[in-house]
Amino acid sequence: MTVEQAVTTTSATKPVSTLAQKVTAGAAVAIALLIVLGGFLIGAMVFAAAEGVDRTISNLADVDDPRVVRQAICLPYSDFVLRQHQASLSTSQIQGVLDYAGHDGEGSAVDNSDVCGSPQSILDAAGIK
């Protein structure tokens, strides 16, 4: 075998990377990096959200002023009453909805009106007749 034949045989059997193979390999590496970084970012967001909820609960638990706890309970309750009034429900209808929603199926009920006032008192405080 001559040197020329050896060079031809070696170069003929040597794999040649095409541009498409290089682009595909680069894309695969990029996708793998995006998956790893995306997973990291999602994990970081979930951790941050859980930490924020934990801080909020801790802040409410550490509050010496009961008005803050009352406000945390009564603002959503009052918002509900005002929205139902906007939807043209009477105060007795709103109270009926609250009574029904507060029952746990075993006869006991959570009654925010003891803490926050009746639907009528909320409407009165808002200056709505």
Salient structural properties:
129 residues, mainly alpha, 6 helices
Summarize the structure.
With 129 residues, the protein is mainly alpha-helical. The chain has helices at 3-13, 19-61, 66-86, 91-102, 113-116, 119-125. It is elongated.
Topology overview:
Layout: H1 3-13, H2 19-61, H3 66-86, H4 91-102, H5 113-116, H6 119-125
Question: Could you please describe the fold and organization of this structure?
Answer:
There is one protein chain. This protein has about 130 residues and is mainly alpha-helical. The chain contains 6 helices and no strands. It is elongated and about 105 Å long. The model has no long low-confidence stretch (mean pLDDT about 75).
The share of residues in extended strands comes to under 5%
| Number of extended strands | 0
What is the residue-averaged pLDDT? 77
Ranges where pLDDT stays below 50 over 5 or more residues in a row are none
